[in-house]
């Protein structure tokens, strides 16, 4: 299943029973072990082949000389053993969610199993599942891997086999699906057209395949490529390293992955200085690694967007080399050149984000060129139509290669004031409300160098290209006023834009409350973020330690309700605070100019497991490990039911279960539930949080809670009603009770859906 809409075209879902729809492993093992003991064969040998094969085939394999009657007797004995003990047979994780989704989507489904009818009925009944159609070994001549069972189900449903999805957890079953010409979805890490974590994952993908547009209410995850996963041991993250961790992302409910720039670059700004827009840097693994990652991600239903850095190139880009070589070079006008001021200094007072003037003198031609970042990052001239055309081609190239869109770097910077007027200075007691820049930069009113309205025309142009590919464009726009930001996503401009209100703030509940309300009111198309690779980590900005983590989680609960796209920055799901980078060990050009703004603290390696290299690398990481503890790692948090990671997974799985209700409306209103309570309502859902540091008086909840940041037992299946006294930073999702949840016996898991 290489791309996007394929799942949207399905007409039926055919599910294997044991191990797929029904969790019967223990029961199956017990029966086969007893049978093996009775027949003097090794239980392990039998168990190794029994799964996914009809019993008859397994019996014959061990006793090839038995005649048909004796085989039938053996199969009957085995069936009796299996039917006699169904004590722990339950529906598989996510089965309830899947069956609800199939029902809502009106997708027909059937169970196709190599078990006999009697056993299948007994087992499905024990799990509380009533399939509308059941095909067993009694209905076909052979069992799996023969395709006949699946073909028979398709014929009975009147559906073209090519429009069927087979869901399987065994090799023979997958082989049967493929032989039937169907699309396959594999569980247990097996390889199929789709690769599923569990049935809830499939429910989610099916619902999302029918969500238009696909990025609506999606969950995004930012991978800072140099620090996520290193597959080669050179200490530098790469694309294959990302591929090793995709299951981590799907288990968090992520729909779309943003990769920071992977293009060929001298890495003066770690990839944000591109020397060739059409090549993947060998340090990240080259073209093949990108193709491999896209295939693996798409197979899990994950979309992948790149990072379009076109405010500037690297000074190593052939365009700039040509432009700098002569004032009459055809590429000269790809960049912004000006004569020196009368005193020989820079043409105006604009400043680089990373310190010093935004102009560098080029002796070869006697003019200055503009760079809003490092001198090695010359700004492109977006008033040149030839350049505009070239970048269209870059976008086309990557979307055709399989990228699902772009995060647009410095999306509001591209076009500059045509007359390059000086920026006014701000009054002495005012500073531009932005981190990630030098103090000098913050003293100017950036009226002319950035955020010029002409930029919308460029975004509109890109939008037309993106829409042809069903791709998504999300802007990096540091416009904190939500109403002004909304103009970037109006009409046919960018699909979405990050709102950095929660990134540019330290913890101030009153202010957060006001800002958030304004952003919610401004547009249903914003992208909600708490952090990124350019700012200190959220848990640190929000106060650090356990309190910082709790505050971040409370905001995630609120974000989970909001229309638009919600994003995690890598490590945020672990509640990570800033990494520790000893003086002299940093790598950020901004850190060199303004040490207190160094971005290295957010860029230390992702801690996958305890030990040297943190599971990020087997070599020496390019940035220090950051002083992470064992408890910070993914491995430790996975094993701890009370961890930040598991709380967020619970939140995201609950959000998935509420997808239909989220889709029902984009309208969100702020609700007054009493002093100190921040609450929003979206149709039949509410998000409620106490952002203060003191408990609030008991609140009468307008609906039962289905997620509680302080109580892992609360879930859509186990809602909690009644008045609640919210502890500091406690946050809830509430859902108006629905009339019906499917009645399957499923295992109790956090957020079990
Ligand atoms: C964006 C990136 C940042 C980079 C800058 C220049 O703000 O997020 O990391 O340094 O653009 O490309």
From TrEMBL:
Q: Which organism is it from?
A: Nonomuraea insulae
Q: Which UniProt keywords apply?
A: Hydrolase
The root-end lineage is: Bacteria, Bacillati, Actinomycetota, Actinomycetes, Streptosporangiales
| NCBIfam families given in the database record | HAD-SF-IA-v3
Task: Output this protein's name.
Answer: HAD-IA family hydrolase
Taking every annotated instance into account, which residue ranges of this chain make up the domain Glycosyl hydrolase family 13 catalytic?
A: 222-603
Q: Which GO terms describe its molecular function?
A: hydrolase activity
Q: Which InterPro entries match?
A: GH, GH13_cat_dom, HAD-like_sf, HAD-SF_hydro_IA, HAD_sf, O16G_dom_2, PGP-like_dom2
Annotated stretches, region: Disordered: 579-599
- Please state which protein family the record places this protein in: Belongs to the glycosyl hydrolase 13 family.
């Amino acid at each position: 299943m290489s791309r996007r809409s394929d799942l949207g075209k399905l007409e039926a879902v055919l599910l294997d029973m044991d191990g797929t729809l029904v969790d019967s492993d223990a029961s199956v093992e017990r029966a086969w072990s007893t049978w093996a003991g009775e027949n003097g064969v090794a239980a392990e040998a039998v168990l190794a082949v029994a799964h996914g094969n009809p019993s008859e085939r397994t019996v014959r394999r061990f006793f090839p000389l038995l005649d048909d009657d004796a085989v039938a007797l053996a199969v009957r004995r085995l069936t009796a053993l299996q039917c006699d003990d169904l004590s722990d047979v339950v529906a598989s994780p996510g089965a309830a969610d899947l069956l609800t989704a199939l029902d809502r989507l009106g997708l027909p489904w059937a169970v196709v199993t190599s078990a006999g009818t009697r056993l299948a009925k007994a087992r499905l009944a024990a799990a509380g599942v009533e399939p509308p159609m059941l095909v067993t070994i009694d209905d076909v001549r052979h069992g799996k891997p023969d395709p006949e069972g699946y073909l028979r189900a398709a014929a009975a449903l009147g559906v073209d086999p090519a429009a069927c999805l087979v869901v399987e957890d065994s090799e023979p079953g997958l082989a049967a699906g493929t032989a039937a010409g169907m699309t396959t979805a594999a569980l247990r890490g097996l390889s199929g057209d789709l690769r599923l974590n569990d049935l809830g994952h499939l429910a989610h993908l099916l619902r999302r395949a029918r969500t238009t547009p696909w990025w609506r209410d999606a969950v995004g995850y930012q991978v800072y490529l140099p620090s996520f996963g290193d597959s080669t041991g050179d200490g530098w993250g790469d694309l294959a390293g990302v591929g090793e961790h995709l299951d981590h992302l799907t288990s968090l409910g992520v729909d779309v992955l943003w990769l920071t720039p992977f293009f060929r670059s001298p890495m003066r700004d770690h990839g944000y200085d591109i020397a060739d827009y059409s090549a993947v840097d060998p340090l990240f693994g080259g073209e093949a690694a990108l193709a491999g990652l896209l295939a693996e991600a798409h197979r899990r239903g994950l979309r992948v967007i790149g990072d379009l850095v076109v405010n500037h190139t690297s000074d190593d880009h052939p365009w700039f080399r040509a432009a700098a070589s002569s004032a009459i070079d055809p590429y000269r006008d790809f960049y912004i050149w000006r004569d020196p001021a009368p005193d020989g200094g820079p043409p105006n007072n604009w400043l680089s984000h990373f310190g010093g003037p935004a102009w560098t003198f080029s002796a070869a031609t006697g003019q200055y060129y503009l760079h809003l970042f490092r001198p090695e990052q010359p700004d492109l001239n977006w008033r040149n139509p030839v350049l505009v055309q070239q970048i269209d081609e870059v976008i086309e190239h990557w979307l055709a290669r399989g990228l699902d869109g772009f995060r647009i770097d410095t999306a509001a910077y591209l076009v500059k004031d045509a007359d390059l007027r000086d920026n006014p200075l701000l009054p002495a007691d005012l500073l531009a409300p932005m981190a990630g820049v030098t103090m000098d930069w913050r003293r100017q009113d950036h009226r002319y160098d950035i955020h010029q309205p002409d930029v919308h025309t460029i975004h509109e142009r890109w939008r037309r290209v993106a829409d042809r590919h069903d791709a998504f464009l999300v802007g990096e726009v540091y416009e904190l006023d939500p109403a002004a930001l909304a103009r970037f996503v109006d009409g046919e401009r960018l699909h979405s834009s990050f709102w950095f209100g929660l990134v540019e703030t330290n913890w101030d509940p009153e202010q957060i409350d006001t800002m958030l309300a304004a952003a919610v009111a401004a547009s249903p198309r914003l992208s909600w973020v708490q952090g990124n690779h350019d700012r200190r980590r959220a848990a640190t900005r929000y106060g650090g330690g356990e309190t910082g983590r709790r505050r971040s989680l409370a905001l995630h609960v609120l974000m989970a309700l909001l229309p638009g796209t919600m994003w995690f920055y890598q490590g945020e799901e672990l509640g990570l605070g800033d990494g520790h980078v000893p003086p002299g060990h940093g790598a950020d050009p901004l850190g060199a100019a303004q040490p207190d703004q160094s971005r290295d603290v957010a860029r230390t390696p992702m801690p996958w497991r305890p030990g040297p290299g943190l599971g990020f690398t087997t070599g020496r990481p390019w940035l220090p490990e950051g002083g992470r503890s064992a408890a910070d790692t993914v491995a430790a948090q996975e094993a701890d039911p009370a961890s930040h990671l598991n709380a967020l997974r619970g939140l995201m799985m609950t959000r998935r279960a509420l997808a239909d209700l989220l889709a029902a409306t984009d309208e969100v209103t702020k609700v007054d539930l009493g002093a100190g309570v921040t609450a929003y309502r979206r149709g039949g859902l509410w998000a409620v949080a106490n952002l203060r540091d003191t408990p609030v008086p008991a609140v009468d909840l307008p609906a039962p809670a289905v997620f509680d940041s302080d109580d892992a037992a609360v879930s859509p299946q186990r809602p909690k009603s009644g008045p609640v006294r919210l502890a500091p930073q406690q946050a809830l999702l509430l859902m108006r009770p629905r009339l019906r949840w499917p009645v399957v016996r499923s295992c109790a898991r956090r957020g079990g859906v």
